[in-house]
Amino acid sequence: MDKNSLIINLEDICFAYPGRAPSLDKLNLQFHQGDRMGLIGPNGSGKTTLLHIIMGLIKPSSGRIEIFGGHVEQEKDFRMVRQKIGFLFQDADDQLFSPTVLEDVTFGPLNLGKSQDEAKAIARRTLESLGLAGFEDRITYKLSGGEKRLVSLATVMAMEPEVLLLDEPSTGLDETTEKRLVEILKSVDFSYILVSHNIDLLIETTDYIGYMISGDISVDDDSIPHTHRHMHKHGKYAHKHDLSLPDKKS
User: Fold this and answer.
1) How far apart are CA 168 and CA 95, in angstroms?
2) CB–CB of 210/229 below 8 Å?
3) What average pLDDT does the segment 63-74 reach?
4) Distance spanning both ends of the chain, measured CA to CA
């Protein structure tokens, strides 16, 4: 792609939690406008840590971060980043804190300087686009897990970001709600990085998949195992199946 379309450029990023082996070890990543990247890997491989570093929620011990063409390091730099990159947390309860759905979804636009009327219009439009029209006055903490997940996504999309970082968005969703999520991701006009253990979700919603291993990201032709006994072609990323597991229908 054109170098000018480079959005996120990470060079030799290192990070370790106290008393633990490095989560990220000289990790490199280039993410361009229009990319829809999947990211998979074992628990503890650093997927969530990577997203937190991009958002400036934690700082790497070494390495260089460039976002939207500029070097970002200080909190003031990341405040600008957060206006353009929307982050869906792994736990919806970390994202939702207002009494009603409408208040939660209007919070972001208001924080970006929109008027009350503008923010409410954006919130209603966003909720409708996600099939959540009529949820405006629902009490947030009384929503089901799947409803909370979709409302969390609405709070992020209402900020009209240029990029989405999605951390395990299908966790806890029933089959119907997960299909709805797939339809939403296929229809939205966003570049995004989607972290998930659900390989089938990644295949349906991303253009390529990176595998977190040894503190870095591999995007070569290595096969990625999962438990279903059928083959999906995902560009050049064929994946294999663990035949030691009991047969399951997909």
Assistant:
1) 14
2) no
3) 95
4) 35
